[in-house]
Give the backbone structure.
Amino acid sequence: MKKRQLRWMRLDNAAKLFPASRRRGWNNIFRLSVTLDEEIRPEVLQKALESIIPRFPSIAVRMRRGMFWYYLEEIDSPPKVIRDLCCPLTHMPFDDIMKCAFRVLYYKRRIAVEFFHSITDGNGGLIFLKTLAAEYLRLSGGYEIPCEQGVFDIHEPPREEELADDFPRFAGKYSLSGKAPRAFQLSGTPEKYLISNLLIAELETPEVLKLARSYGASLTEFMAAVMLSAYIDLQAERVPEKKRRPVRVFIPTNLRRVFPSVTLRNFILYVTPGVDPRLCDYTLEQLIAEVHGQMSLELKPEKMAARIRANVRLEQIPIVRVLPVFIKDAVMSAVSADSEKQTCITISNLGLVKLPEEMARHVERFGFTLNIKRTAPNNCAMISYGGKLYIEMIRSIREPTLERKFLLKLRELGLHIKVESNYGSADERRV
């Protein structure tokens, strides 16, 4: 049998920040999961993974360090699937990332994939997970799953446009950048042993959408405004008025909704709507109006293109190109830490997951979990499937202060919420 030619790829524009911003005990990884209607058989899952990785040469990779830049190198065999641990997003050491930059886990009826963010974003990760789950169902039960709704045909060769770094392609003629002042961030008692506490709130998607639209907002805008309200209250409880800071949320935006791209690599930018609570006592209606207005302005294609241009121009400066990688690491790490301090929390909404009908019969739910921020102990991710909205709030501190405040506000607005978590002893820390 002829050996497959393995590829290597430069990191895309967004990916270059992630290896530089790592620290001891922390890397920027995220998790996607799917729960099926049957117990997962690990030997079948392993076979499914082996079948699909040739179709994803930009995801089935390891990180490599060159003299001037990091790069990705395709792996020739998949990692071993492993039983899920007691906590999501346990530390992925960089030495492991340099062997394989993702891992596949199983627990009861759930399949999870955890990705180092340099290899893909939520959109690419979701396509990988859908294709893996579809292949598992084919092998496990003989189900015929059509290749649609983000399920790839694993017998087709990868398309070059799926492997492209599309940031240079859609960079504008002029650049636009700016720095925001430092924002308020929560603090608390750090958990021991790098444990992460995860709370999942399950809501009815139609109910949330109806409420958000009654305020003239999208679901993401509505949730961002409620989160800002929670942070305003928490800061007022903890910080004297004269020392209070702006509150701002960090929202990743899928640029494929703005530009015609099908890349499976990172293709996201961020918007950071927020307010300064020292200016007035904001009502929820005012916060929603602020978030809606700021996001509408920031998401204009011409403004996004200008911001892409600013990022791309930086890496094209001749002196930057020839700096040794350890110097680039130090500079980008400082930039990343400073950027994180400008927001309180990330809210990432992957939106509605659609599946082929033949596959949807066997899928109960999806999950999406972000790692904690490097400089703050909380993060938040959302995903919708089957009429349900799942909000996953992760923290590395003991106090569930933010979750309580945020969910209480949602309940006061009349929303029905079902909550589950991995709090408790190590044996109980499974969701």
